[in-house]
Target: glutathione transferase
Amino acid sequence: MAILKLYGAKIATCTRRVGTVLHELNVPFELIEIDLMKGQHKTPEFMKNQPFGQIPYIDDDGFILYETRAICRYIAAKYPASGLIPTEPKANALFEQAAAVELTNFDPSASKAGLQLFKKNLGWPSDDAVMTEQLEILDKKLDAYEVILSKSRYLGGDTITLADLFHLPYAGFIGAGGTDIMTRRPNVARWYNELISRPSWLAYQDGVKTTKDY
Model:
């Protein structure tokens, strides 16, 4: 069987999210580096498989799939023993609830603030006003996270799921960006520190790379 191919940029946030899940499940893959600075993601060849011209997408033995969360769900579904997508109805409902929380309450502000922090760390032009505004929004959202995480170890219960991993890498960027909003609430801090300590996250601190052996 052909090795899974991940088309993305090694330092890009969404590429790292997919890479983290692949590592979490010990799935061998080859990174096909896409040069964003040269506009490789906007070429006809690339857009044949990703019509929006965005990264990443995967080629799993001829099966093409894009959108980060869809990719991660597909990988987890192929390896159901991981439990990253629970199958028991109530556990699955709690997972879906947690995944919706990440998508609607965390990502909108975290991605905007995280992008500015990411740019700043690379020495690129960034917008401090946007970063400050979005961090304030996120800070209020994390009050609800503190309530949720005071009742369970993870967002969907006492077992880690994709819903937790979806918070990476933006949670990591924000936590390392000189703000304490990820660590000043005890339960959020516990959850956050566990996420960023996972080997799957630490494996690609210097960028996602082809990983055939674990």
